[in-house]
Amino acid sequence: MKTNRIIYSGLEELKPYFLSFNELYDICLDGDYEPWYGMGYWDNTFIPFFIVQDNKVIANVSVSPMVMVLQGQSHSVLQISAVMTHPSFRNQGLSRYLIDHVMDHFQGQFELLYLFANAEVLDFYPKFGFVRLDESRYSLKDLSELEPVNSDWRKLSTQVSGDKKLLERFSKAHRLLSKTLSFEPNPCLTTYHFILQFENSLYYSEKRDCLIIMEFDEEELNIYDVFSDRLYRLEELIPSLVNKQMQEVNFFFVPDTDFGGKLEVEKYPFDDDAFYIYPEHKKDIFMENFVFPITSHY
Q: 17 and 94 share a domain?
């Protein structure tokens, strides 16, 4: 690597370069970390490894240590994300250099590494030994026996002090989303989704003391995550979320129930969010059908 390029890592080393880093994120991934970063939710569990040239961030690979709970067993895993190179510095091997650097740095510290890749780079990650696993889609299309019930779900706002406190509480402590495949609470990652990904999709029920990330129209409901420190059953929650016109409920995680045999499960290759793991032999720990919760993605 050229001598006028320096590799930095970690949140503290990022702070002097945050504006440049955020500009790179906007250019490469059409995003803006500022609202989340500015509120102080970015912590040392989201670790950037970035290259600076002439006081400008030109490439990055971020990593996140996490604890995955798979069928009751805890696994120490590392997620790779925010792989980006400024357009003026592409085709110089910078992403490859950083991924090699990260894999060497964390060698032997985690059971597996994983990442999600878009359609443009599906051939890139196998060069490092990553293998792709196709995830599945979970849908409930027979709603004939569901009787909608009145509910007190209300939309939350990250700009309202009381709502913000609720979001902070749920980010720090909540039951596992799924006994089949879930992750231990991670406030940094959870607030990333609350602030940047699903700001307009947060709903709270005081009666149930439960938070749901969901999107819906008259005919379809998408449930992305459920946060509660109480025991809950999806069979009991769903009737409070649907209306008589609704025809389909989609789950972006593995439900712990099959709704009396009505849950439909099918392999569904997500080419724009393809799932890769390393090393290859770790693919054997996963069941035939699974999906990583969408809120486990950076």
A: yes
